[in-house]
Structures are given as C-alpha cells and as structure tokens.
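Before the break, one more example. Copy the sequence into your notebook; we will annotate it together after we see the structure.
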Amino acid sequence: MAVRSKSSKAWLNEHVNDHYVHMAQKDGYRARAAYKLLEINEKDKLIKPGTILADLGSAPGSWSQVAAKLVGKNGQVFALDILPMDDIEGVSFIQGDFREEQVLNQFESLLDNRLLDLVICDMAPNMSGNAVTDQARSFYLCELALDFASEHLKTGGNFLVKVFQGAGYQEYMAAMREVFVTVQTRKPEASRNRSSEIYLLGKNKR
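Here is what the structure looks like once it is written out:
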C-alpha cells in the first residue's frame, strides 16, 4: 500500500474531523461547499423563489442542490461542468468544457435567450502544484465566467465567483467593477482559513 505523504495525512485528518463535512453528510449535500453558498446567500439574499441562475463549474453539485431548493418551482437552475454530475431535481445540466465555444453554444441554447438573475461560479482548475501556473489558470476561468455573466445577466443581475488572492486579483477586481455597480468580498466561515480562496460578489449589473 502506498505511503501517504504528511500533507495528504493532514488533509485526511482535517477532512475526517471537519464539522462541515459531517453536516454535509447529515443534510444530504454532496460537498461541504454547500455551506459557503448558504452563508453568503443568507447575508446577500442572492437566491430567492423564482430566481433564474447558472452554476458554472457545478460538479459534484452541492451549489446546484442549494440553488434548486431556494429557487423553488418558479425558478430555474442551469449547470455546467467538464466533469460528470449526477442528476439533481430541478437542475438542467450540460457536461462539457467551459473553454470550448461549442459547449457554450450548447449551454446558451439551453438558456433559450432567457436573461439570468444570477451567475454563481465555484470553479477551480486542476492544480498542477506550480503556484504561478495554477493562479494563471484560475483567473483565466474566472475571466471566462465574467464574460459569460456580462453577456447573460439581465441589468441589475448579480455574479458570485471564487478567486484566489495573488497575482491577477486586483486586475480581476477592476474588470468586475466595469460590469457591476458594486463589488464586495466574502469569506464564509466554511472556507478554510489556510485557503487563499475568497469570493467576489458583483452586484447590480450595469
């Protein structure tokens, strides 16, 4: 049997003893990330009954699970990920690479010209271990998500995206400010302290 590295042992130990992991198992969510969205939503009231939204980078589906419950019968949740995702009632899912035009066209045809109230994005690239490369890949995905949001959100719509603090962060924040009236940061309790992840919330699309 392979010997676990110290870092993977630490991760496993943290995961096993993680309050939010236990809560997710108890509440039926597919990942602890559900609580990040629930906490942000409690503060900012982004998802309400009737909200029409897109979840970019949705797998394994915990954000879509939260969204589907909150939008109710009159709302709609569209989800997209390169990875497969098991069905969720009330969620329309397309599997494909967000960077490919053909996949985006397929997703847009699913939207059927409806403008969205909200775009949420908890995407992260496959980490290579090279901090510079990973940061660049992460912001490339974030830029694509911002382009998608600026094109498909209705005026006054909102955009919630995960970013990693570091190179490119200030530039991305500036790009968001061109699209949204206000841009705020959110660091939910369910986000691990040691993680450089932070959520940017663009409110009120121009």
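The CA atoms of residues 105 and 111 lie 10 Å apart. The chain has seven helices and seven strands. Try to locate both features in your own notes.
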